[in-house]
Amino acid sequence: MVAKVCVIGYGVTLSPHKDSHPVRPINSGLAQTKPKPKKKPKPKVKVMKTVNQSVIDGEIDDYNSRSPSPDVDSWQMDTETDIHTDTSDKPRTDCVNKITTKLNGTIVSPKKNIQKGKINSDKDLIEAMHYISLHKSGPTTKDTLPDSIASCTRPSLFPRVPPYLKFVRHDETSPLKIPPAIQKHLKWKLTTITPIVVKKTLTNSGFRLIKSECDTAECPQEETLDWIGIWGKHMKSLMFRAIKEGQKMNHFPGTFQIGRKDRLWRNLQKLSAKYGVSEFGIMPKTYVLPHDMKILKHEWEKHVANDERWIIKPPASARGTGIKVVSRWAQIPKKRPVVVQRYVSRPYLINGSKFDLRLYVLVTSVHPLRIYLYHDGLARFASVKYNDELSSLNDRYMHLTNYSINRLSKNYTPNEDFAACEGHKWTLDTLFQYLKTEKAVDTEALWESIKDLVIKTIISGEGSISALTKANVGSRYNCYELFGIDVLLDEDLKPWLLEVNISPSLHSASPLDIHVKGPLVSTVLNLAQFHVPARTNLDALQPGHDCKLDGLPYDSRLYTVYLSKEERDKHLIYTNIEDRQTYLREILNTLTSDDVRSLICAEDELRVCDGMERIFPTANTHRYLTYLAGPRYYNRLFDAWETRYSGDRHAGISLLQRLCATGYHLEAPPVPLKRAAAELSALDCRMMWTRRRRPPRHAPQRRTCPRPTAPRQRTQQQQQQVQQRQQTQQPRFACAGRSRRRRLRSSRERNTDLNMNRQKT
Ligand code: ADP
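Above: inputs. Below: predicted complex with adenosine-5'-diphosphate.
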């Protein structure tokens, strides 16, 4: 099956039909309604013009060179303008027609390299791809890479896309052998919370672990700045600006929006108000105190007769710290910030005990949103059998299922065998097996309802995460995040969302833990898709060979967040189309370079999601798009892609392969000038990040001295004073001198105080 490929003004028009099918006209779909007279193509001039325009626009407004859709506010602004256009006399289709035609531009012949052999058959195409990969960008496929590199990397599905580094499991007996020229740069920055299982996976995969504050002869501090990966705590959004090209962090900015219990509830509450409790009532009803005190009181009085139970939790804490189950109003803290939640008092019990589920969820991108759910996880049991009596509410071993609490109970039994239904911790796989065989539960339906809960949970924070990512993250390569989502099943097997952990514990003390978390870590790192660092000395990799390895390392163009003017226009159009059928029909007809980049990244991910299931996007998840804070371009692109190609992935992949063979995906707009300025300010942030030393608590506030803008001209009188001072050897009171004097004075004062105290005693 061969697709027709025509490179046009800003994009490529694709026809997924077989050769025998008529090729679709360029302005297909809506554009077909008004056939236009054929114009003579003026390809090159037009392309050049548009590129230049985008550069200029980029310089003027860096902000605009990104996709307009991720930022909710800017999207609303755009929509308003667009709605205005829509309500004009012309029908909507005309408007779309006009802009689509503008976008499609004039047909230009395919790139020179391709022209050498017209793409008429698979054979020709493969030859053309081969020609390009050998002569234009160097080998990037497994066949053309030296064995030493091919064995430690995974090739992309697409030509002219650098391969990805392979991650092997923590328990791999033969660690990967990485060529020294690459390994030199495989630096992973350690933090105090990097889990052991992550460290083992990294060392087995050839990484060097570097301490944050390392400053030794072998590893000077400058070296620690060039790490390519980090597994650390969540940071403030601004700090993400310090992440450089080619570095990856295991968080997105703004995920506290779902990681804090109060924010999570507020976000879900907004969605419930908009789309109904039947859709978003996935978390037990919660009150954020002291703000919601009055409403809680009102609710409390309604249920007081039923002896309703409530659970009190600190808004941003974990491991069951500060959690209490209560039933009396007097037990509610009146001033302290807490969340008070309806207690699920009829949980699903196994052998009389309550349990909760720990699900592992990976987000590899927020715009487009891509969510993966790990097939395995943990079921954590309470160590005391459950009862509903008021007198037992204080028993934390009965009502809380946290491992950190129950392991202290004398009843707690560890489970050494990951396949066994025994002890107080099971794997999710075992639990589902048990539910299916022993309890005749419809586990497929249960899994579906869990997937629904996970997607809605992530979507509830998507607006803020997306906006903060757009504002603070400079490359699509920089972030991914693993979440631990806790879920409780009630007696009807309805899953209730308890909380989202943004740094889920990967502590693996028992064989059961390591069985679940070991493969999880290598899968997560493989899905995060690390490249060979750009600093790698390629000549040292293959000395004496003519064949260059230019296509091997990280290529920033693949992950640029900047868009050309035409790409931005396309985003605007398809973000503002209301009808799904319209964008499904149109959006894939003209793929931009940026579209291709997003799609190849996602297709490459799908190849390594070993044990993880991509739950969003799929061909059936478009209904969730309405719950997002606004229509998102990339999510629509993926909706259309999945609708068309999920049944025949091979067809989609081969279309992308053809485009990549021409190098189309590498046509990225230049980085706007403003970005350079932004990077400078990020430098301060970077310094702050690498040397995070807190100032002493009670340090006196420094007064900054205004610096003279021009060199000072001394008057004659001043000159004389200086000379006099030099003769008498008096110190010169400059800014620094002044603070030194202040320090001296204060230490002198302290000493006198001390002496006085001593005298007193
Ligand atoms: P933490 O972050 O401290 O672990 P969680 O919200 O996960 O806090 O709650 C700890 C435990 O308390 C859960 O594992 C669960 O067993 C129990 N729990 C929490 N909320 C509820 C609830 N609404 N109904 C019933 N049990 C709950």
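The chain has a mean pLDDT of 78.
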